[in-house]
Amino acid sequence: SKTMINMSDFMGIKKSDGIDNFYEIDNVIGRGAFGEVVRAKHLFSDENRAIKIIDKRKLKKHSILMELQIQELKILMKADHPSLMKVFEIMEDEGHYYIISELMKGGELYDRILSLKRFTEKDAANIVWQVLRGLNYMHKQNIVHRDIKPENILMESKDETNLTLKITDFGFAKCYDPKEGGLTETLGSPLYMAPEIIKKQKYDAAVDIWAVGVLTYIMLCGKPPFKGKSKEEIFVQITSKNIAFTSDIWKKTSKEAQKFVRKMLIRAPGQRATADDLLKDEWLLKNLDQ
């Protein structure tokens, strides 16, 4: 069996008798598989932060997830980019790990999509540009996120004219060596999963671009490109259905926007645009200038 990496083996994790010596914990603002996210105030700087509390007992039952979580911590400690969630410190006590990060007050992009139904091309471009910049930073270091979806993109403010965001939840993120031919674990959220993951082929950072393609499609027309009553039905569509741009909404959307989305939803990963390519796209740049 694989030996577990001991958390204290890697730098930066503070052993603590109690997190309440450093933070005043307020209300729960989110829940995940291994614990919850709370709002808290740093006692020494008076700043508001978010703390992800991970229950060690729940993690230990899943050694693969334990390893993924350790990867997440390592990646988060090193990440420094305006589009990625900033982590201030990581602490642990007997029963928990605590990931202390900046507090985003605007909620998930998912909720923004539900309330707005769809975005103008200008706003969609602004959001996608930030996501692609964060991914480009990760991909250049051979890190793939593997779970890009609107629930993992947090908005800075509830003000709908403020589109500043951060990519969060690096629980599935992984460093890979391109020389080794790619990754194989089947991970992610069905609606955003790239065809190569579903087909159990080796994959790389291109899976993140496919997910951004699905996200952009949803933001521009208000509906996902693939539908199905079950995961299996959705998977059949992702691997074989032609992506439609035929609804009335698409007729009102610029051809350049459609072309931009199509570049990301190419089934052959080798032909799919990279984050670097997409950041130079005419439609994107034109909409950022307005």
* Total strands: 10
Quote the CATH topology of the largest domain: Transferase(Phosphotransferase), domain 1
What's the helical proportion of residues? 25-40%
**Low-pLDDT windows of residues:** 1-11
How big is the Rg?
20 Å
Q: Estimate nothing, just give the exact number of structural domains.
A: 2
CATH arch. level architecture of the largest domain: Orthogonal Bundle
User: How many helices does DSSP assign?
Assistant: 11
Spatial gap, N to C terminus = 56 Å
Order of strands side by side in the largest beta sheet?
A: 1-5-6-4-3-2
Portion in beta strands: 15-25%
Query: What class do helices, strands and sheet pairing give?
Result: alpha+beta
State the fourth-level CATH superfamily of the largest domain: Transferase(Phosphotransferase) domain 1
- Please tell me what the overall shape is: globular
CATH class identity of the largest domain: Mainly Alpha
Give helix and strand order, one letter per element, not per position. Answer: EEEEHHEEHHEEEEHHHHHHH
Largest sheet descriptor: 6 strands, mixed
The average pLDDT value, as a whole number, equals: 86
Subunit structure: Monomer.
GO molecular function: ATP binding; metal ion binding; protein serine/threonine kinase activity
EC number: 2.7.11.1
Family: Belongs to the protein kinase superfamily. Ser/Thr protein kinase family. CDPK subfamily.
Structural description of this entry:
- The protein is an alpha+beta fold and 290 residues long.
- The protein folds into two domains: 14-102, Phosphorylase Kinase, domain 1; 109-289, Transferase(Phosphotransferase), domain 1 (Orthogonal Bundle).
- 36% of the residues lie in helices and 18% in strands.
- It contains eleven helices and ten strands.
- The protein has helices at 56-60, 63-78, 109-116, 121-140, 195-198, 206-221, 231-240, 248-251, 255-264, 275-278, 282-289; strands spanning 13-15, 23-32, 35-42, 48-55, 87-92, 96-102, 143-144, 153-155, 165-167, 174-175.
- The protein has a six-stranded mixed β-sheet with strand order 1-5-6-4-3-2. A two-stranded antiparallel ribbon has the order 7-10. A two-stranded antiparallel sheet has the order 8-9.
- Strand 5 (87-92) and strand 6 form a beta hairpin.
- Helix 4 (121-140) runs antiparallel to helix 6, helix 4 (121-140) crosses helix 11 (282-289) and helix 6 packs antiparallel against helix 9 (255-264).
- It starts with 12 loop residues before the first strand and ends with a helix.
- Residues 1-11 have low confidence and may be disordered.
